[in-house]
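Quiz preparation item.
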């Protein structure tokens, strides 16, 4: 086999609680993650030389050693003593710097692709242990689906899948630095700590209404204070029939949960008309 093709899904956070800041600067979190049917498409091929080359149509991301795909491929080559080079192609469909883990999911897919291409037989657990060196969300992206993520993101518990629904994704045309958002959160006197256990119960019961009622994100207030458009998109989604709406990750993407895909598509048209969002997509949970 000379080429492996993979689909790398985006994620949303149904709930994100920043528990505290550890002395080493990392933040301890407790979050329920959900992968969605919005994918980057990746192929990993043996190139015949000894380099790692990335080819992509993506705008605004580095295609050199700074790309998380490159770091993932290099890590596997180093750890497993592989000399062969690889060519990796990336078709970018997930908005960049959006809070949708675009880079982390690409890294996760690359780790899996290298494992398959070179027939390395690395277990999911081994891939996750390697992945956390690249980024805190990479282990979750390797596992995907619905999961509780704790620690700095490396302690994962798979959960029951959430009910079928429509998920509307809208990213305003602004870029948010994750580092800035966490720093601003640290300096808040009154911090928001959403109820993760209530979300776990709602997920376990397969109750979409309770899931929508318990959406929460410690970081939302920080990013929204800087960019009020986030609150306005949420309001628009609720007005357009969303059961609940929330900012994902450190933002600025806002998602809405709808009873089905058609309802999400109708709301997408309404959000589009306001001109508040640059990237809009409708997906389901995967
Ligand atoms: P998270 O939700 O994990 O915080 P994000 O969705 O906010 O992630 P990314 O799309 O992963 O953010 O991009 C963050 C930065 O990572 C980008 O500005 C980009 O320069 C860099 N980056 C490196 N590799 C990639 C990649 N393969 N795809 C996207 N961004 C990448």
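Solution:
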């Amino acid at each position: 086999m000379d080429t492996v093709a993979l689909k790398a899904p985006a994620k949303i956070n149904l709930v994100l609680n920043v528990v505290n800041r550890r002395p080493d600067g990392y933040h301890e979190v407790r979050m329920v993650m959900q992968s969605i049917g919005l994918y980057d498409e990746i192929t990993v091929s043996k190139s015949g030389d000894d380099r790692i080359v990335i080819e992509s149509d993506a705008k605004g991301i580095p295609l050199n050693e700074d790309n998380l795909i490159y770091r993932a491929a290099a890590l596997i080559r180093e750890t497993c003593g592989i000399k062969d080079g690889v060519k990796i192609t990336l078709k970018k469909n997930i908005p960049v710097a959006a809070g949708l883990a675009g880079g982390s999911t690409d890294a996760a897919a690359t780790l899996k692709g290298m494992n398959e291409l070179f027939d390395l037989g690395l277990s999911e657990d081994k891939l996750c242990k390697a992945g956390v060196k690249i980024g805190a969300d990479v282990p979750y992206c390797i596992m995907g689906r619905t999961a509780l993520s704790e620690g700095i993101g490396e302690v994962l518990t798979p959960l029951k899948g959430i009910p079928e629904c429509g998920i509307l994704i809208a990213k305003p045309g602004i870029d948010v630095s994750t580092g800035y958002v966490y720093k601003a959160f640290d300096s808040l006197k009154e911090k928001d700590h959403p109820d993760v256990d209530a979300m776990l119960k709602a997920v376990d019961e397969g109750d979409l209404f309770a899931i929508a009622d318990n959406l929460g994100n410690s970081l939302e207030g920080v990013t929204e204070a800087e960019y009020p458009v986030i609150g306005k998109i949420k309001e628009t989604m609720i007005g357009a029939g969303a059961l609940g709406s929330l900012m994902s990750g450190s933002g600025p993407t806002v998602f809405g949960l709808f009873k089905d895909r058609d309802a999400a598509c109708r709301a997408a048209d309404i959000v589009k008309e306001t001109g508040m969002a640059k990237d809009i997509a409708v997906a389901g949970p995967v």
